[in-house]
Amino acid sequence: MNDNPHHDDPLRDRVVAEQGGSPDTTMPIVVYALHLAGIVTGGLTALVGVVIAYVYRGRGPSWLDEHYRYQIRTFWLAVLYFTVSAVLTLVLIGFVTWLAAVVWLVIRCVKGIKGLQEQRAPDNVDTWLV
After folding, report:
1. 73 phi, psi to nearest 5 deg
2. N or C, which end of the chain is more exposed by having fewer CB within 10 Å?
3. Which InterPro entries match (predicted)?
4. Has this prediction a pTM greater than 0.90?
5. How far apart are CA 110 and CA 70, in angstroms?
6. Domain for residue 127, yes or no?
């Protein structure tokens, strides 16, 4: 189920385009940066980033809203992956899964930033992987 009521709304995209210029991608870039900074802040900045994504979702063209949806999914999946890794550290494999989760997070953020630069939605928004 799509949690964004404006997903693929061509009328809204046309209205946004008629308002002039390309949409500002500063906030989505900030959210990706906050997700990445969460690696060293224990997730605190990622929490701030997901709040920003929730606030800004629905205010731009559908491709930009897909970035916010992707960022929100990335946050919640990261919470799951890092929690599982924390539990698995009790049997020592958690250090490997934590490293895999870090790599996963970096790849998702880089893919998202690349999509922003190309002014298109990120690929595979609904995937649990990259």
Report:
1. -65, -40
2. N
3. MamF_MmsF
4. no
5. 12
6. no
77 within domain boundaries: yes
Residue 28 in domain: yes
What is the model's pLDDT at position 73? Answer: 98
Residue with tokens 């605190």: 44
Looking up tokens 């790849």 gives 107
Q: CB neighbours (10 Å) of residue 92?
A: 8
Domain span at residue 55 reads: 23-117
* Coarse DSSP helix, strand, coil percentages of the chain, rounded to the nearest 5 percent: 70, 0, 30
- The amino acid sitting at 38 is G
Segments in the chain below pLDDT 70: 1-21
| Amino acid in position 23 | P
Cα–Cα distance between 101 and 128 in angstroms, integer? 11
DSSP string, 72-128: HHHHHHHHHHHHHHHHHGGGTTHHHHHHHHHHHHHHHHHHHHHHHHTTSPPS-TT-S
Give the pLDDT confidence of 98-116 residue by residue, as tens digits.
999 999 999 999 999 999 9
State how far the Cα of 72 lies from the Cα of 42, in Å rounded to an integer.
Answer: 17
Q: Write the CA distances from 103 to 1, 25, 81, 93, 98, integer angstroms.
A: 27, 24, 11, 16, 9
